[in-house]
């Protein structure tokens, strides 16, 4: 996750937790820079579980004084295991959470270096079992975002696959401030191999159990 995505994360939290009530159960897959988890934490959830696989991110969480999601955060939960960073691939961690009977009011998915097949597997095989009645699921929607036609096609594909999984979706279209994002290798893209975002609109998914 890059810093320019902060406004999208803010809107995502607002959509996942309408009114930002305290005491909700949250699962976030992909800690990254910790932007969205810091926002989730502000709502004082009753459970806040994070899954992160990247070794460098985990090293930062465990050893950096700048990170506030380490052992002290975990120990400060309202009950044992309520606040937890699960180290490992979500494909290995999520089945265990399902077996343990964990349920969540808000689930967010934003992994690094995975293709659409993994997102589809997650919402097809796991979201229906992890999302409690009335809960909301969302993901960072960068699917095909380097070309508008691809973004539009993925929108339809996601809608079709979510329906097959027994999930409803609404899109909230947001404006994206393109300042600093216009040119490959410049501005926010300095040092980034490929500019993965070129659009001035973002479609924020709001997904619920069908019915």
From TrEMBL:
Tagged with keyword Cell wall biogenesis/degradation: no
GO cellular component, one term: cytoplasm
Residue ranges of every copy of the RMT2 domain listed in the record: 1-211
MF terms in GO: protein arginine N5-methyltransferase activity
Highest rank taxon of the organism: Eukaryota
Gene Ontology biological-process annotations: methylation
Keywords: Methyltransferase, S-adenosyl-L-methionine, Transferase
Database matches in PROSITE patterns: SAM_RMT2
PANTHER family, alphabetized: GUANIDINOACETATE N-METHYLTRANSFERASE
This protein's name: RMT2 domain-containing protein
């Amino acid at each position: 996750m890059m810093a320019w995505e902060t406004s999208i994360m803010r809107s995502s939290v607002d959509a996942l937790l309408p009114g930002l009530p305290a005491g909700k159960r949250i699962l976030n897959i992909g800690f990254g820079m910790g932007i969205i988890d810091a926002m989730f934490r502000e709502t004082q959830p009753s459970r806040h579980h994070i899954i992160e696989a990247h070794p460098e991110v985990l090293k930062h969480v465990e050893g950096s004084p700048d990170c506030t999601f380490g052992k002290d955060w975990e120990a400060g939960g309202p009950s044992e295991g309520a606040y937890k960073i699960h180290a490992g691939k979500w494909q290995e961690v999520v089945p265990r959470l399902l077996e343990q009977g964990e349920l969540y009011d808000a689930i967010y998915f934003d992994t690094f270096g995975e293709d659409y097949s993994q997102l589809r597997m997650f919402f097809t095989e796991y979201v229906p079992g992890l999302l409690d009645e009335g809960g909301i699921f969302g993901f960072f929607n960068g699917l095909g975002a380097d070309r508008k036609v691809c973004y539009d096609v993925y929108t339809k594909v996601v809608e079709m696959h979510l329906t097959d999984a027994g999930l409803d979706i609404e899109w909230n279209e947001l404006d994206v401030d393109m300042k600093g994002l216009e040119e490959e290798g410049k501005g926010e893209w300095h040092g980034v191999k490929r500019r993965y975002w070129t659009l001035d609109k973002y479609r924020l998914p709001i997904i619920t159990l069908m019915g």
